[in-house]
Amino acid sequence: MEEERELTFSDILRIFKRRKWTFLIIFLLTIFLTAFYLFFVATPTYEAKQVIEYKSSSSQPTVSLGSMSSAANLLGISQPSDSGLTTEIERMKADWVLANVVKELNLVEKANENKGLIARLRGTEVTERDLIDSLKEGINIQNVQDTNMIEISYQSSDPTVAASVVSLVYSYYTDYAENLYFEDSQSYLNQVETLFEDVSQQYDQINKEVLDFQTKNKISDISGGTSQESDPLISYYSETYMNILKLEADKNQLEIRKQAIEDNIFKLSPETKEFILTNTEKDTPVKDIKSKLVSDRIELETLKLNSPSSPRIGALEAEITVLEDELKKNLEAIFSNDLNFLASIDMETFNEYTGIITQLQLFDVTKQVYENMLQVIDDEIAKRSPIMYEYFLLRKDQAILQTRYNTLLTALEQERMKASLYDNKFKVITSAYIPENPVSPNTTLTLAIGGVLAIFLGILGVFVKEANDKTVKDLYEFESLFGVPDIILDDSNDAEKIVNYVYKKDFKKFGLLFLGDFSVAQNLSQRIYNILNTVKPNKTEYFTSKENEDYKEKFEKFEKFKNTNEAFIMFDNFNNGDYILYRDDLEKIIIFIEEKTTNLEDIKEIFKKEKDPTVVYVKK
User: Where are the bilayer-spanning segments (predicted)?
Assistant: First the structure.
């Protein structure tokens, strides 16, 4: 008799057959609750969208001081730069933009009017900051893949609010971006105007000094075209001087890019370098060696497990040692030179980096040439008369100031033109509209999830109920746990089988122990008694165990039972005292197991006490 057994597929089918109503009720209840939530509880959510296109360059002029890096470096000012798409997306979620949306839609008042019960009890007040943060999280702004399109979307239980938020976010963003642009432009103009005024005064002064010098020294009257010959030198000098400034600006940009590459690649730890080196898509000796090492180690460990005496183990260990040394040497060779490492993992960046270094070296050479040429011109002029040299220095300063003057004047005109021709960076492709259908809850998906959940809960409910049911479920379970019963009754009225069994065995005194419903025990015992009296009138006595019976009556009944030739007694509980009193005087104890009523633990207990009982299984 086994107490535990493996659950087979047949057992599962029988469980579901027994608990079909449990499964069906849970399934239907879950479906009903899902539908009730879907149609009566869940708040529909609507999503409004607006699609806009980013124009990489606006219609205003773009040529300005920023394009003249040498002049910009010379003048020490920076032109407003054109922000990128990522920056513009973040600006759309700026506090100023969202605060205006909140105010225009009266979201603070509406939120406080529609507060939940808990918020009202707590006295919580919704603030403008709360709604700005909520909008910042709720508004979704993303770039449509592989395009310059931007999609702005927002979800709300009110379709009108959803469309209004999307539309107003873009509207206030355009105002915000325009304000920022003109603030930056005005700041830039103020800087340029201040410098222009200063340079203009210096330029006027140098022009006056040149004219005075020419008048005083009668330069224009010198024969031989001395003044004309000095003009090309002055022009060359000023041009060379401006080229040096341009070189410095370009060199600074290259230095920044060079530093970025070095910071990203060269300053990594050796462990990180090794990881990048061996995991890059580009094939390298290190990657091949490491791959071979992995395969050899796997083979070695496999052989140690399956064939510990294999001669291949020694050869593999030697090969692994060689590979480890080779890997170490390769890593040292690559890491000893940052350029080797860069070339191993990213040839494109390597080419860029080496190109930058080359350009920087060439810049240094060119700068030295320019500086030497300036010195040559200086020396050339210095060989001439002191008056001409002094005149050359004045003309040189005049040429430099003239370049500054023209550059600033051009910058002023271009920036003013840009401001007058300001254009938004985005173009509306699809305007926001009030959505007609909610995006959530998704009826089909929710019902599908509810159906899956209903099946799961139904199965869970079946097994929980089965686990909590400690009674005998069916004949198959009883037989699998305790063996085949001696007698099987199709119902509780089938007393003839018991009588036939008693008659055939010729039991004079026997007991009926019912592990089940007391009413069934009384009915079946009475029917057995009636049949026995029909066969042998007035020969068989029927005794019934009674709870709380007077001891005198109890023992008198027991003595009568002992002195009666043929009798049987009915017990409804194997733990009561009468069962202990009568059991030794009984030829046979007949135990009745009632399907779906008798507890399994009671059956185990009685089988421990009774060595050879007659088991009767009563079906329901």
Answer: 21-40, 445-464
C-alpha 572/C-alpha 493 separation (Å) is 17
Report the C-alpha gap between 170 and 98 in whole angstroms.
10
Q: Tell me what pLDDT residue 346 has.
A: 67
The tens digit of pLDDT for each residue in 118-149 reads 777 777 888 999 999 999 999 999 888 878 88
Which positions ≥6 away from 471 have C-beta within 8 Å? 596, 597, 598, 599, 600
- 424 token code pair: 């938004």
Per-residue pLDDT reduced to its tens digit, 340-360: 666 666 677 777 777 777 777
Q: Which residues of the chain have pLDDT under 70?
A: 1-5, 56-83, 219-231, 233-235, 238, 264-284, 286, 305, 331-346, 361-362, 381, 384-385
Query: Phi then psi for 479, rounded to 5 degrees?
Result: -65, -40
**Angle, CA 511 vertex, CA 505 and CA 517 arms, to 5°:** 120
Q: Which long-range contacts (CB under 8 A, 24 or more apart) does 208-213 make?
A: 209/394, 210/391, 210/394, 210/395, 210/398, 213/390, 213/391, 213/394
- What is the reported pLDDT for 333? 65
Q: Which domains, and CATH codes, for the chain?
A: 230-420 (no CATH), 475-618 (3.40.50.300)
615, two tokens: 């088991």
Helices (H), 490-609: 496-505, 518-535, 551-563, 577-582, 600-609
Which H helix or E strand runs over 185?
helix 159-217
Q: What ranges make up the beta strands (E) of 124-217?
A: 140-143, 149-156
C-alpha distances (whole Å) from 538 to each of 121, 402, 587 are: 82, 146, 20
- Sequence-separated (6 or more) residues with CB below 8 Å from residue 203: 398, 401, 402, 404, 405
Taking alpha carbons only, the member of 105, 68, 13, 38 closest to residue 459 is 13
Instruction: Give the chain's radius of gyration (CA, Å).
Output: 51
What is the pTM assigned to this prediction? 0.55
